[in-house]
Amino acid sequence: MPDSSPRSLFAARLIQARQLRGLSQRALGDRMGLGKDKGSSRINRYEHQVTAIGFDNLGLLAQLLDVPVAYLLADDAAMADAILALAQADEGQRDVLAALIPALLQDPALLPKLAQLLQLPKRDQTKALKDLADKD
């Protein structure tokens, strides 16, 4: 069974975010201001769960990787993806989405219907969403 401790979850997200940005451990450590050799070692230690990260460095890593701090601490991949999606929304969209998620969870029939819509090809999704919007 995979380790789901906060440290292991952070390590997995750090690796994922670093690779998504195309950065080596050395490059990321250097951007943190630690120098190439010391920085590479520090990032390696975070990723291999040898060293815990402090809040200041956590915030700096998130900024350098252009992800929210919450992404680096997400419990699983789906939550991490949702956090990234919310981070890309503007403030008004986030407010709507924050209200929408609990509403979807309270209506057991609605969530599977929307999930089915996401299984459609993109062109059909667009039409189905437009049809939903036009019903108002």
Automatic annotation (TrEMBL):
Residues 14-72 form the HTH cro/C1-type domain. SUPFAM superfamilies: lambda repressor-like DNA-binding domains (SSF47413). It holds the Pfam family HTH_3. GO terms for molecular function: DNA binding. It comes from the Bacteria. Keywords: DNA-binding. Gene3D superfamilies: lambda repressor-like DNA-binding domains. This is DNA-binding protein. It comes from Pseudoxanthomonas broegbernensis.
